[in-house]
Amino acid sequence: MSKLLKLREALVANKPNYPLNYAIPEMFNLFGHSSLSILNNGEHLVNPYDFLVDLIDQVLLKHYESHEVASLSQLKEAKIAKKHMGGDWILKSTVYSMMIRTSTTWDHDRNGYVDENNIYHLKETGTFIKTLALLPLLDKMGVDAIYLLPISKFSLKNKKGELGSPYGVSNFFELDPSLADPMVGEALSLDDQFQALVEAAHTLGMRVMIDIIPRTNATESDLIIDHPDWFYWIKSSDLAVYNPPYVDEINDRTVSPTMKYMPTVYKSKKVLEHIRRFQFDPKTQNKELWAKLKKEYARKGGSILELVDKHFGLTIAPAFSDHINDIQPPWTDVTFFRMYLDHPIETSKFLEDKNVAPYILFDTIKSNLYPGHKPNKELWDTLANIIPHYQKTYGIDGARIDMGHALPKELVNQIIKTAREVDPDFAFIAEELNVDNAKFARGLGYNMIIGNGFSMQPHIWEGKLHHFYYKSVDLDCAVFACGETHDTPRLAARDGGQNLSKFLTVMNMFMPNGVPFINSGQEVYERQPMNTGIDPRPNELYMLPADDPFYMKLALFDKFALHYLNHMHNDIPDNLARVKPIRKKYINVITDKKNYIPISFLEGYNPVGFAYEAKDEVLIIVGNANPFDAQHVKIDLRPIRKRFDLNQNEGRILYAMHESGPRMFYEFDENQNPYFFMGAGEVKILVLQKNKSK
Amino acid sequence: MSKLLKLREALVANKPNYPLNYAIPEMFNLFGHSSLSILNNGEHLVNPYDFLVDLIDQVLLKHYESHEVASLSQLKEAKIAKKHMGGDWILKSTVYSMMIRTSTTWDHDRNGYVDENNIYHLKETGTFIKTLALLPLLDKMGVDAIYLLPISKFSLKNKKGELGSPYGVSNFFELDPSLADPMVGEALSLDDQFQALVEAAHTLGMRVMIDIIPRTNATESDLIIDHPDWFYWIKSSDLAVYNPPYVDEINDRTVSPTMKYMPTVYKSKKVLEHIRRFQFDPKTQNKELWAKLKKEYARKGGSILELVDKHFGLTIAPAFSDHINDIQPPWTDVTFFRMYLDHPIETSKFLEDKNVAPYILFDTIKSNLYPGHKPNKELWDTLANIIPHYQKTYGIDGARIDMGHALPKELVNQIIKTAREVDPDFAFIAEELNVDNAKFARGLGYNMIIGNGFSMQPHIWEGKLHHFYYKSVDLDCAVFACGETHDTPRLAARDGGQNLSKFLTVMNMFMPNGVPFINSGQEVYERQPMNTGIDPRPNELYMLPADDPFYMKLALFDKFALHYLNHMHNDIPDNLARVKPIRKKYINVITDKKNYIPISFLEGYNPVGFAYEAKDEVLIIVGNANPFDAQHVKIDLRPIRKRFDLNQNEGRILYAMHESGPRMFYEFDENQNPYFFMGAGEVKILVLQKNKSK
Hints:
The structure is a homodimer. By secondary structure, chain A is an alpha/beta fold. Chain A has 3 domains: 3-215 and 380-453 and 541-579, TIM Barrel (Alpha-Beta Barrel); 228-336 and 340-362, no CATH class; 587-689, Sandwich (Immunoglobulin-like). Chain A is 27% helix and 17% strand. Chain A contains 22 helices and 27 strands. In chain A, strands 16-15-14-8-5-4-18-17 form an 8-stranded parallel sheet. In chain A, strands 19-21-22-27-24-25 form a 6-stranded antiparallel sheet. In chain A, α16 (438-444) links the parallel β15 and β16 (448-449). In chain A, α1 crosses α6, α13 (377-384) runs parallel beside α15 (409-422) and α14 packs parallel to α15. Chain A is globular, with a radius of gyration of 27 Å.
C-alpha cells in the first residue's frame, strides 16, 4: 500500500480531539492551508494533523499514481541507452541540500525551546514526515532533486553538540530514530516514514539523493560485534594521549600524503610511537573471551565499546585527517574502516616489524593511493550493499559518496556498479573538491563532482567568481553551481550579504556546466553556518545576535531552527519562482556545453554573464557582480553578432531582479550593443531573436 | 460556602485533561507558580487551572477565615464612634483603579488576537476570576483598596468601540455578563465570581470599591419597560437632528448653567426648538398601546427601543454635557433620568407653555441646582438601593458616585444614608473635581473627593504640581494623590515620561491630605490612555507605535491589553515595594494633618518635599521634580530646627530611588542643613532623630 495513503490514514486516526496551539513558519504553508491564525511575526497556527492531511490532499495526491517502491528514474526513464552513463539527469536538476533533523525544526509550542518531546508530546526537531511541509517551497523554487545529509543511525557516544553529528554512522542499514515522527505513532515504521517522504517527493517530480559514508564509521558501531577485525584498536588507557602524530621533520603544515613524504613520516619518532600504540583486534587476541563477550552483549546489550574495554582494555582508535600535519584535532566520534587486511604495499617496507597491529596513518587512510595486497572483501561487499538497501527499501534516486577520494578505486567501482545494477539511471556525486580530478571521477562512473564553487564564488573581488563561472565549462564533468554548503559560511553572512546571496542564487541557475545547488536556509538568508568546516572566519560561530536562541549553535551538531521568519524570507524564493519557467524552457540549451557562448563587456566594472544559442534566439544572462553598488553595464555583442544574424535593435527582457515582469527592450547603442542600468547584485535575462531570413 | 473554596473546586473539576499552551505575563505570576516555560519576552506558559488553584492555595488561603458576605470594614471595625464619619479608612488607603475587562486582558493563546472565545474556549478579555492573578502585584505595591470602574450590565446599543463603554449601564442590579469566566463553567454564577474576587481581596486586607452611575443610564435600559416616565423622549424621526442647543446669544463657550444665563437660554430660538422636540413618554400617551407593547416584549424580548419606535415612533433622548455651549457631541449611548416629575421651580417660569413634555436642558441636568417640586421618589428609592444590593450580595467596602454633582442633595443624602445603614464604615468618594467644593462634599457624607490631581501634577513647569502638593493640605477633605486616571493621558506618555511617572507615583505615597491613587497600567509605564476624556493632546490616540496591536485603541471601549511586557515593568512595582513598609510604619503620622510641616529649600531648582513630625523623629520626603536632569538639593532645616531639637549632623536615608538600601547620612553644611545629589525625578526619604534630652 502507498505509504502516503497510509500516512494520511494514520494522521486522521491519531489526531487528538482537543485544540492544539501549534505554530509553523509561513514558509511551511505555501499551499494555502487555512490556518487558525496568522501571526504578525509570520507564524501560522495550525492543527498539525489537519495541516498535513490537507497538504497530502491538495498538493501530493493531485497527480498521484501508486507504484511499487522505485526511483523516479526507474519510473520515468527505464531505458538508458547503453553508451550513455545512467544518472545524468542530475546534470539538468536543481539540487536542494538539507538535513532532515534541521530543516523542519521549529518551536511549535512556542515555549522558548526546541523540545524533543513538547507539550503535545510532538517532536520539534525535523522529521521525515514534517519535511513534507517543505516540498511546496522547494517546488516553488524549481528544486527537483533533494540531497539529504546523512540519515542513517548515528552514534551518540562522545557526541558533538546537543544532538551529535549524523556523520558518525553506527548502522548503515537503519535510519536514525531521531527522525521518526510521534504524530504517526506506531502506524508507520520509521522505514515507512522515509518511504512516504520519497513517495511524496516523487509525486512532485523531485528526486531524492542520500549521503553515504563508507570510509568512516562511528567508534561505537553496530558492526564491531561481528567484525572487530574491520576496525583499528588501541589500549583504552592510551586514548587520552592518542593524537595524529605531528611530523616535525616535515616543515610544511597540512600536506597531502604523497609518496615523497613517506620515508620521512616512517622515520619520525612520533609516528613510530603512534604505530606502536595499535593493538590487534580483541577477537584475534582471544577467541574464547570474545565469544564470551558476544554472549554477554547478546544478553545485556549496552555499549559494545564499554564491554570490550572491560574484558580486553581495548578501544577503537579515532580517525583523523588524511593530511600530514593538519592541525585538526582527532575526530573523536568516528574511526576508519580497515580497507585492506594487510599493511600498504608501498609503505610497509618502512616498517621494522611487519607484524605490528593494523594502524591508522596518512597512508592507510588514503587507501586509494596506498592499497594492500588483501582487500577486505567482506567489508567491501557490505559497503557496496548500502545503496541497494536504500534503493530497494525507499526508492532513492542517487547518492553522494563521502570521502570517496579515500576509497580504493575498485571499491568505488563496486559500489557504483552494484547500485546501477538495481537502477541503471542512479546518479552519483563524487565528494571531489579538486576540479583537476573531474575527468578521473567521471571515469569512475560519477555523474558529477562537487567541485569548489563554495570556496570560489563568494570571493568575487579576488576574481574567483569569474574564474569559476568562465573556466568550469572546460571541465570534463559538471560541478555544483553553489556559493555555500553545510560546511561553509553562509552567503548572507559574507561581505555583500543578502545582495550577494540573491545574486549568486539566481545566477547559478544558468551557469554553464554547473548544477544549481541551494543549501537549506540559503533561501531565507540564514546567517549561521551549519558547520565551521570549510573557509571559516575567526568569528564564524557568532553570525547571530547574542540574544538569538540559536546563537553559537551549529545545525550539524545542535538543535537549530532556520530563521524562516526573516522579514526577507520571500525574496529569494520569489526570484527563483520567476526564473524557474525560464530555466525550464531553456534547460536543454543551458545544459549542452556546445550552446554556450562567452560574452564580454564594454562598460561596467566586473559584470559577469553567459550566453547560450537556442533554436531561434540567443539567451543572455547578465549579472552585476558588485553586491554594493549599482552600475551601467554594456554587453559587447559584436562577437556574437558575427556568428548570428540577430535582431538589431530590439530584444526581450525575460527577467530583471528589480522589475516586475517581462518586457520588450530597445536600449542599444550605435553599434547595436545593449546596455542596462543594473542594481547592486542584479541579474537580468534577455533574449535576442535570430532574424528568420537566414 | 466560601466562594473562594467553591471556585477552587470548580477549577479542579473543570481542568481539561489535555495540554494547554496558555501564556500569561510575568506580572500575573509574582507568587512563584512554577510555570511550564518562561519565555524570553517575559511571558510564562502555565495551565491556567493549575495556576489559579496554586494562587488560591499559596496566596489566598494562607490567612483565610470564612465569613458571611460582608465588607472588610464590618469584619474589622464593627464599632464606628458615632461622632466620626464612617468610611474614613479610605484616607489611609492606597487605591488602585482598574477596569475588570481590561486589566487582565491577554492574548493567552498567542494567536495574535484578544479572543472573546479562544482556541480553548476561554476568554482573553478580563474577568473577575482572572483578576485574582493581579492581587499579588497589588499587594507588592502596597495597594489596599481596589476601585473598580463600572461592572454593571451595560448596553451594547450604539456601542462605542469594539466592546462598548461600561458607563452606559442598562441594569444596576446585574453584573455585566462579559466579565464571566468560562473556566468555572456553570459551577459559579456571575454573582459568585465577583463575590469570590471580593473574598480574595479581603483575605489580603484589600477593600473593594465600585463606581455607581445614578445620574445617567443607557438609552436601551432595562428600566424603560416598567418606568417609561423616568426617561426623556423625542420622536424617533428627530434623533438625527437632535443636538445640545447652542446658545448663540451667550458669547462664552462652555459655561456652567448658573441662574444668570437662564433667561437668555430660555429666549434662545434654538433652545425653544429643542424643547419643542420632547414628547410625553409612551405610556402617558397611550396606556392601552403600552400595555400591548409590554405583552409583546414579555413574549418576544429583543430591543425595547425598537419596539417603542415601532408602536409609538418615539425614542429616548440622548444625554449631553451639563455645560452651556460645550462642544462635546451628544452622548449617544446614554440618557438622563428624570429626577423630578415636574419642571424646575426656578426656570419653569420662563416656559410659555407649562405643559410641555419633560425635556433635557442644562438646568434639568443639573437637578441639584434646579430642583422641581415633585421628586421622582420611586426612582430615588431605586437608585438608593443599588449600593445596598452590592453590599449584601458581594460585600463591597465603598463606592464612587458618578456625576454626584448633578444629583439632588436629598438624593445624595438618601444614597449615603441607606448604604451606611447596612455598613456604617462604608466609604464614599465624590466625583468632585473642584476642590472648592471639598467642604460641601464632606458635609454631604462623602469621605473624600477626587480633586484635580490628575490635571495639576503633570504640569510641573507651570507650578501646578507644587501648588497641588502644598495647597491641598488646607482642603476640608482629602483628594486623590494621582497623576493620571482612566480619563486622562498616561504619565509615561507625558513630557518627562517614565521618570515623571515614577517620581509622582512614589511621591504621591506621602502627600499630605492626599490618598495615593494608581491607575492600572501606570505601574508598567503604559502609554496609551484608556479614554481621551480629560486634557487630551491632539495626538492622544496615537501614543503607541503603529505596529502595536493596540494602536489607537482605548481600553474604555476596545479590547486592550496593558503592556505588561514592557522591559521596565518591574521598575515602579519594585520602588513601591520599597516604600510600602515606610508608608505603613508612618501611616498615622502622614495622614494626620497636624503632623505636616512645610519645608523649603536653599539649593536646587524646583525641588519639592514634605516633612512630618513623628514621635521621636522628623520624616522628610524630598523629590527632584525635574524628570530630565539631576541636580543638587539643599533643604532649609532652620525653621524645623527652631521647632525641634534635632540631631545636628546625622540622619538616616530610608529610601533613595537610586540607592539599594537604607543607610546613615552625614552630609550637612555648616548650618546643619542636609544636602543631596538627586537624580532626575529622584525621591529620597530621610529621618532625623529628635534629641532625647528634651
